[in-house]
Amino acid sequence: MEKLIRLKNILEESRMIGIASSRLMWDQSTEQPKLARGEYSNTLAYLQGKNHSLIINEEVKDIIDSLKDDDSLNPIDKAILRELKEDYDRIEKIPKEDYEEYARIRSLSILAWEEAKEKNDFKLFQPYLEKTIDYKKRFIQHLGIGGHPYNALLGDYEKDITVEDLDKFFNNLKDELIPVIKRIAEKENPTFDFEKKAYDIDKQKVFSRFISGYLGLDYQRAVLKESAHPITYGFSNKDVRITTHYYLNNFLSSIFTTAHETGHALYEQGISDEITFTIVGTGYSMAMHESQSRLYENILARNKNFWIPIYDKLQTLYWDNLKDVSLDDFYKCINKSKPSLIRIDADELTYPFHIIVRYEIEKLIFEDKVKISDLPEIWNEKLYEYLGIKPTGFSDGILQDIHFSQGYFGYFPCYALGNAYASQFAYGISKILNINECLLQGNISKINEYLRENIHKYGKLKTSKEFLKEISGEEFNPKYYIDYLKGKFSSLQ
Ligand code: ZN
C-alpha cells in the first residue's frame, strides 16, 4: 500500500500543476489582454514540462508495473492504474527526440496554417502539413498497434471504435441521408427575415445565462464567459467554466453554442465526488463528451417542445424583432437545412458529410494513397459529390479547420460519433422517460438526473461501449441517428 500512497501523492502534485496550467489556458482564451498574447507561453511550457517529468520517470513506471495486476485494489484505484498505464505505454513507445521535434514542427505548422488561411494559399501550409503527417506516420509505427494505421490515431480520441466501424457507419449515412439532402435541396428554401436582424449583445448575454441555467447548469459551480472559439474547462465537478460567443446579426449562434457547451459542462459537473480529483474524474472520451453536448444542443434545444414553455420569454426580450414571429416559424428556422461550405455553421442533417469528407481524406493520407498537393482538389470533389457545392478557395475548403495543423488526425470522426451516440442515448432514455413530456413541462431536471446517474457520474470508470449497451440495450448502431435525422427532417419539409 505504501506504493499506492506514493503514487497518489505524485498524482496529486501533478493535478495541482495541471490546475495551474489549465487556469492559464482559460485565462488566455477569456481575460488576457491582446498584447499579452504569448507572454505566458514560457510559463505554460514550464508547467507542462514539470508535469511531464513528474509522471514519466522510472519510479512511476515501477509503481505502475508492480500494482497493475494487484487484485486487492478497489475499482477506482484499478481504473486509475489502467488509465495511467495506457498513457504511459503510448508516451513511452515514442522516442523523446521524435516527440520534441514533432512538438516544434506542430507549433510552426499552426502558425503556417493561420497565415495560409488568411492569405487563402494552401502552398504556404503544405510543407508543414507534410512534415506533421510524416511524424504521425512514424508514431503509428512506434506504437505498433497493428491493423489499419488509422486505428492508432483514433485511439487518442475514442478507443472503442475502429476503421471498420467507421466505414460501416459513414457508408450507412451516405446511403440513407444523401437522398434526403437532395430532396430538400430541390425545394425552395424558406427565408426567415428575423434571423439576421440586429440583436442587442447585452440581451444575448442575459438569454445565454438563462438558457444554460434552464438546461440545468449549476452556477454555484460554473462560470460563463466569452471567447472566439467556445470551449469548456472542467477543473473539477465544483468548477466548470464555459465560453460562448455573441454576434450582433446572428443571435441564434449564441443560443445554440451556449446550449452545446452547457452539455459538456453538465457532464463535468455530474462527475461523482469520489473521483472528481483523480485522472479518471472526467468525461470518458472525446466522442462521449460530444454526445452530451449534441444531446443538449440538438436533441433537446432544437426540439419544438423545448421552446413551448420559454418562447414567450425570448419573444419579450427581443420584442421588436420577434413580436410577429410564430413559434412554428422560429422552430423551422432553427432547423432549416441547406448545404454549406463551413463545417461549424452546418445544420444537423448536412453536418456529418463535412466529417465524412475529412475522414475519407485522412484515411487516404494514412493509407499512403494520395499526394498532399492533391488534397484541396479531392476535398472540393468530395464535398461536391455529397452536398452539391464547391468551395471558392482554400480558406472555405481544406484550410477552414485548425485540426490538421495541430496533428489532430482521427479527431473529426468523433464529432459525428458524438451525434450518433446522442441519438442512441436518447432512444434509451425514451424507454424510461417521455422526453417530449419533460420538455413540455419545462422539467429538464428529470433528463439531467438520468444522464448523471447513468453516464456523468462514472467519468472514465466505464467505456463508451458499456454506456451504449447499458442505456440502449445494444452496441453502437447508427440506425438511431439516421432514424432521428430522417424523422425530423422529413416532417419539417
Ligand atoms: Zn463540443
Describe this structure in words.
This protein is mostly helical and 493 residues long. It is 63% helix and 3% strand. The protein has 23 helices and 3 strands. It has a 3-stranded mixed sheet, sandwiched between helices. Strand 2 and strand 3 (239-244) form a beta hairpin. Helix 1 (2-30) packs antiparallel against helix 2 (41-55), helix 8 runs parallel beside helix 23 (479-492) and helix 16 (351-366) packs across helix 19. The longest helix is centred in the N-terminal third of the chain and has 29 residues, at 2-30. It is globular, with a radius of gyration of 23 Å. The termini are far apart. Zinc ion (ZN) is lined by residues 260, 264, 290, 293.
Quick overview:
It contains 23 helices and 3 strands. The protein has 493 residues and is mainly α. The protein has a 3-stranded mixed beta sheet, with helices on both faces.
How helical, in percent, are the residues? 55-70%
Biggest beta-sheet profile: 3 strands, mixed
Bound ligand species: zinc ion
The count of helical stretches stands at 23
In percent terms, what proportion of residues is strand? under 5%
Instruction: Give the averaged pLDDT, no decimals.
Output: 94
| Sequence of strands across the biggest β-sheet | 1-3-2
Distance between the termini: 63 Å
Residue stretches low in confidence (pLDDT < 50, at least 5 long) are none
The helix-strand sequence is HHHHHHHHHEEEHHHHHHHHHHHHHH
Gross morphology: globular
Find the count of extended strands (DSSP E, 2+ residues): 3
Over the alpha carbons, how many angstroms does the gyration radius reach?
A: 23 Å
User: How would you classify the helix and strand content by structural class?
Assistant: mainly alpha
